[in-house]
Amino acid sequence: MFGNLFEEEEEEGLSSTSFRGRVAKGGDEPPPPRGKSNLCGIKNQGGTCYLNSLLQTLLFTPEFREKLFSLGPEELGCLEDKEKPGAKVRVIPLELQRLFASLLLVDQQSASTADLTNSFGWNSSEGTNQHDVQELNRILFSALEHSLVGTTGSTFIHQLYHGTIVNSIVCKECGNVSQRQEDFLDLTACVCGVSSLEEALWNMFVEEELFEGNNLYRCAKCDRLVTAAKSAKLKKLPPFMTMSLLRFSFDFAKCERYKETGRYSFPLTINLRPFCEEAEGDDSDYSYELFSVIIHKGGCYGGHYHVYIRDIDQLGHWEPLEEEIKPKTQKKVKEEVKQICELKLQEDDPLSVITAIIAQEPSKSVLLDQLGQKLMNKIGSSWSNKFRKHYGPIGKFLQSHSDVFMLVSNGTRVAMKANPPSPVNDPLGSAEQTTNSDPSTPSDPGVADTQPGRDQKPEPEQKGSHWFDLNDSTVTSIRESDIEKQFQGKESAYMLFYRKTQLQRPSEALKNPKYKVPLNLIQMAQEENAKVQKMREEFEASNNTIELRLHLAPSFRLENGALQPISKEQNGSTTLSFDRRKTVGDLRLAIYQMQELWEGDMALTVARSLPAGLHLYNTVTDDSVSLYSAGICTNSDLFVWNGREVRGATVLTGAEWEPVLLNVVRPFLGEDGDQEEEVDGVKCEEARGGFENGGPGLKREARGFAGAVTLGEVREALGEPEESLLCQEHKGGKRGEQGAGEGGGASGWRVFPPDDMHRTLKELSLKDGDALLVLEPQSFDSSVFTLNGDVVTVTTPSDCRWLQVEFPPHGGGVEGDKEEERRKIRVPATGNMLLGEVKQRALDELQLQEQTPGKMLSVDTKGSAFYQGAQYCLRQADCTGKLLPPVCEELSVRDAGVRLMTTLNLCPGNAPKASQLFLQFSVGTEPSAGKEMDIIVEKTCTVKECLKEMLDAVGLDGTCWHLRRLDWCEEVGEPIMDEDASLSELKINNGETLVVTEGQLPPKGYLKLSVWLYLDPRNNSALSMDFNLADNGLTKEQMLEVVTAGEMHSHSPPLGASNIAELRNAGQVEIADEATLEDLKIQVLTLPALQDVCVPTTAFMRVWQLEGQRLARILRGQLLTLKKLKLTSGTDLCVQQLLKEEDLGPKDVMLNVKMGVPGERSYYPPEELVWDATRDSSPRSLRTCLAAHYGLSPDSLLLAKHQQDKHTWEEISSWSQQVSKKKKKKKAESLLGAPFHLKDGDTIGIKNLLIDNNRDFLTLEDERGQQRLREQAEQRRKGGQAASSDGVGPQKKTGPTKSRKPEVALSINVGVFR
Fold it and tell me: What stretch of H or E contains 140?
């Protein structure tokens, strides 16, 4: 009929169950259980929503269902025999029986129709092509009739659905009547030009069509053309009447299809007596009631089907809306409670927050597993971040308030004692129903509905109940009045199914899904339920098993402010797999059993591995709470100790005592390059980035200190006198300045003032890896150290220009070779010497030859083995001895960042060229030191090409792999989504480690956003100060100047225009697009660059969206999702700290306003002003707002908007837009629309006409900007002329038009059973 013109537009109705969103650790994920309705949906194969809607209608037609179930294997055969030759197996009715039994009895959210469509003879593409449901209705019934030929059910389709129409033509002259009967399966009702179903039936069966004029009828009796009347009547009414509405028509004028979306009503009960030939009998013989409405949503070329069905046998659990079942007094009390709870929420009281969450739930109870998420949605912060420090774990808090809260449903839900959940209003989640092991609990929800509480009487069934919306996999309760919403619109009724009111159901069929279901199908469903239940139990056990890392106190000692393992070979940690649903006491008992020799108390403290070592946080004390409630998740670190001390040393716990690993730098003036000292038990050697092997230099040692100790206490711990100076490396120097060790260069260090000696390391923003220079006063006697104000300069003597090259004979790394086996030479070098020349000199002195690889090991006169004829490269090593990437030999020593008087290692391997990258990678797991593989690729290589080369290098094939980068914790981070981007575009640096991970790229829905920090020179905010202190020597790519939306950046900024802000890269965040703006702000504050920033609430932060390094718009609406804010992955955001809270409305505009200096062509510094344009966005409203801000008269102000890209000012006056001829009412004047389009960050210039007669807003900078624009336009014009002379001109853009799929006829293949 319509072919496959109805292509599926969208997949709707995915329900959220307890199983959705989880990832099974092993095996397949089991199907989710049924929802609250206790009815089963049908999975959509891609475009089979039309089939699902019709199948659900047939399932909820009890007479059809029972007729189908009455056919046994002796008539239909067995599916097991369908492959046997000569066997007559009626596959379609057998598969339909199995599907119906599964829908009735198997506990799953949705069933599959794959086996049924396979019996139709459909291939995989048929499942993605959508067809017309009216056409399917006729073809499916025809296929069933052909499949049941020769059985007792061969006529049941005809008995239930077929009726008869009699067409009559009456001669107006002789009265002769000519009649013809025709059979019908469904009645096709016209929609175009008709307002209701009754009117359409009246036109079909009551109105007569006259044959007159030029359209006469030849009467057989009169034997000539006569005037006649034609009419039709219903002769035989079937038990079930199907109405097909002609929603789709064809416009012959436009030659296109269209859908009728006008209002078309239909009754819930209808009497067909006026349309029948014989009108005798009771009204019940002609009365029908509606029980199914198939609905089409969309247009004539695409859409989606779902169905409204009345549950005749009450198999489902219908839930009335809460507003309908509660009296008005309860509604009033509920509103008052809601208002009280919202008022209390402002007090940050966890008791009131949890009370409000439970009070707003329809069931008056909350699942324990969902309480944390609901609390996050309510207040925008997690329990751990907001309340755990003062109140402990959430489980412990609930237990300590047992007078307010109580656990119900076997301890899985929490409710309030003052208002416990009722049995009627507390429907158990589907997961709880399926996992309930109590044999007295009814497995049928229908039975549960008939068992009210002891003190409750069963309520009478409400009118209009037991209507459900079955939308593929989703089933929801609806009201009878909701059917009226489908009278009109793009989502409207398409097929109507009526049943005779005479058809009564037996009492034993009500709420009994097993009624008349064959025993073999019941047994099949029971086996499937047992299989699914076993899968769910295994799945739950797998998903609740977490991996814990236990660190035992006897294997650790306190050193450098952190816990260090005694033995490097044995790190003192063991891995334990444990069920997170068990309690802390169970975990403690399991550890006691593992450590049989443990004596005394045992404390379990959450720990974390930091660069300085292991640090302890909070101790888990409540043995009765589960690990989940205690906040212990997989890969958590737990320290097992006595809770007081470790090897006699007191351990300070908590976030405030987090240790910081500093590089303590001291002067080194010795002559022995191999000299080592031992300070406080810590070996320290010369810094590889400083001076080495004789001559003045610096030596480094890594020392850990608690973050809460002061700088003065650090000096005491280092054993330095009070007159010693402590300096921090100065990273704000010029690019040309080199660090210590560069020939003729210098490095700067800032001296800490005396006041900083009383500040803690956290307050000074010192973090892991920062360098701390310790100088005694006599150090300045040397020419190496110079003190100028508060800056110490370390200068390299000109006679210390050399590089040391070490050659490990066996080609190994630095760590594995003994010192005496190394061969060391010193190569004279300068900053301008090429590294290739350095390597060649080293090869000459070491008597090595660089040839093509392939020769065996050779032994020199000293007995040392080396690789003769191998390729060599120069590599630096870090302070731990780990080899860094090979240096590019095409660069000079200075350009490659190699400091003089340092050591380079001569290692086998190739050096990358200037256009190449040296990358390390590992496959499948996190990289471990020394086990990464190396590869050299071009910078222009795409991610996909790089991945292929890595897979080829390790001998893997296939497409189910993707690349991930490491995050700042050196853990596997986010995937690289853009596989067609080059490595240089993604800013993948030399020496970076990538992880080849198995599996396809993760699904979309997560946004990766770059975050920049707004450093406004006008605002010396704490955020700016903290970030400056935490500056890590950002490169030019990480620092840029941004232009606020009101000013164009130029080389010479205008007077007073100091709104050119500096942006610094703060990192990147990965967040779901369904997260709110408040969630984004909270996650931004967790970035390492902002970890020490204290913001009272997220309202003190402003988030801008950047477009082309320009502040484009302010994101507003704390509870709006990022998807609604139209943020996409890769968007640049800018974070600005505010001095006061800000909550901008949808039409609040943040403007930069600046007042003109009287008599001068300049302005005072700009100010921020929030203009409320909600009610009035006219120029008068803005002028009034500015007048109130400056305390002036509105009539004395002249306003103009700065057009930054044109360097012009557009004067804002009270203007009238053009009046439409049709609408004589003047349009509203709005600055938010044309021609001004005011938006966030726009600059508004103000002239006070009382003291300033100059009405010109242009400044000297604007004139220079206009001159630059004219010069650029002239250059483009000349360039365009040159291009046109070469025959290059603008091409007309032609885009491909979207082609529709070819229409394919719908068919069902049926075997021959005659």
Answer: helix 133-147
Q: What is the CA 1059 to chain-centroid distance, rounded?
A: 35
C-alpha 49/C-alpha 865 separation (Å) is 74
Q: How many CB atoms lie within 10 A of CB 1103?
A: 22
Annotated catalytic residue: which of 131, 296, 304, 551? 304
CA distance 1282 to 229: 82
How large is the greatest C-alpha to C-alpha distance in the chain, in angstroms?
A: 139
The SS3 assignment for 731 reads coil
pLDDT tens track for 298-341: 888 778 999 999 999 999 998 876 555 555 555 555 555 555 54
Contact between 585 and 623 under an 8 Å Cβ cutoff? The reply is yes
Q: Residue 135 above 80 pLDDT?
A: yes
Burial code (b: 16+ CB inside 10 Å, e: under 16) for 911-942 equals bbeeebbbbbbbbeeebeeeeeeebbbbbebb
In which order are the strands placed within the sheet that holds 993-998?
933-938, 916-923, 993-998, 961-966, 972-975
CA distance 329 to 325: 12
Which is it for the CA torsion 316, 317, 322, 327, positive or negative? positive
- Give, in order, the Cα–Cα distances in Å from 1247 to each of 9, 1058, 1244: 56, 19, 10
Q: CA–CA separation, 1130 vs 1111, rounded Å? A: 16
Alpha-helix residue ranges (DSSP H) falling in 735-850: 835-845
The dihedral through the CA atoms of 980, 986, 991, 995 has a sign that is negative
pLDDT digits (tens, 9 = 90+) for 722-759: 888 889 887 654 433 334 334 334 567 888 998 999 99
- Overall average pLDDT of the 527-541 stretch: 90
Classify burial at 347, counting beta carbons within 10 Å of its beta carbon; exposed 0-12, middle 13-18, buried 19 or more: exposed
Q: In a 3-state reduction of DSSP, which class is residue 233? A: strand
Convert 494-556 into a string of H (helix), E (strand) and C (coil).
EEEEEEECCCCCCHHHCCCCCCCCCHHHHHHHHHHHHHHHHHHHHHHHHHCEEEEEEEEHHHE
Select from 1157, 1046, 1143 the least CA-distant residue to 1097: 1143
d(CA 582, CA 605): 17
CA distance 76 to 84: 15
Q: Which residue has the tokens 């590019």?
A: 888
Based on the residue annotation, tell me whether 1207 is a catalytic residue of this protein. no
pLDDT tops 80 at residue 1000: no
Q: Which among 40, 49, 907, 941 is annotated as catalytic?
A: 49
The residue with greater pLDDT, 220 or 1027, is 220
* Among 705, 267, 171, CA closest to 498: 267
With b meaning 16 or more CB within 10 Å and e meaning fewer, what string describes 949-963? ebbeeeeeeeeebbb
Q: Output the six-digit token pair for 911.
A: 């050096």
In angstroms, the CA 326 to CA 561 distance is 62
SS3 for 675? Answer: coil
Q: In this predicted structure, what is the pLDDT of residue 819?
A: 46
- Can you tell me which residue has the tokens 């919306």? 469
Beta strands 187-190 and 240-246, pairing class: parallel
Does the pTM surpass 0.85? The reply is no
> 769 and 868 in contact (C-beta within 8 Å)?
no
Tokens of 941: 């290589």
ω into 1290 cis (within 30 of 0): no
Percent of the chain with pLDDT over 70: 76
Q: Reply yes or no on whether 1049 is catalytic.
A: no
Taking alpha carbons only, the member of 429, 470, 446, 529 closest to residue 108 is 529
